[in-house]
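Hi all, long-time lurker, first post. I run a small reading group and we've been trying to get comfortable going from sequence to structure in the token notation. Rather than ask abstract questions, I figured I'd post a concrete chain and ask someone more experienced to write out its structure so we can walk through it together at our next meeting. Sequence below, copied exactly:
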Amino acid sequence: MKVTVEIDCTPLEARQFFGLPDVQPMQELVMAEVERKVLAQMETFSPDGLMRAWFAAMPQNAEWFRDMFGGLFPQGRSDSKGGNP
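-- Answer (accepted) --
Happy to help. Here is the structure in token form:
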């Protein structure tokens, strides 16, 4: 013998029927805390936040960046083909 029972209800109604606790308020609090932490950490990964973290950890990094970009983009270099400064 095979019996099939189909029940049409929402997840909340099913939890209430089986006597399970309502976890929605707790879930909202946890998700709000996760969102707060994610937004706080996003500042760390912004370009400005990364530069501050790198320079705070090692002050000589500022000079290293200046020298690196100075080598990539030298000021006053003349172009050999067009003669442009």
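A couple of things your group might point at:
Helices lie at 11-18, 24-44, 47-57, 60-72.
The mean pLDDT is 79.
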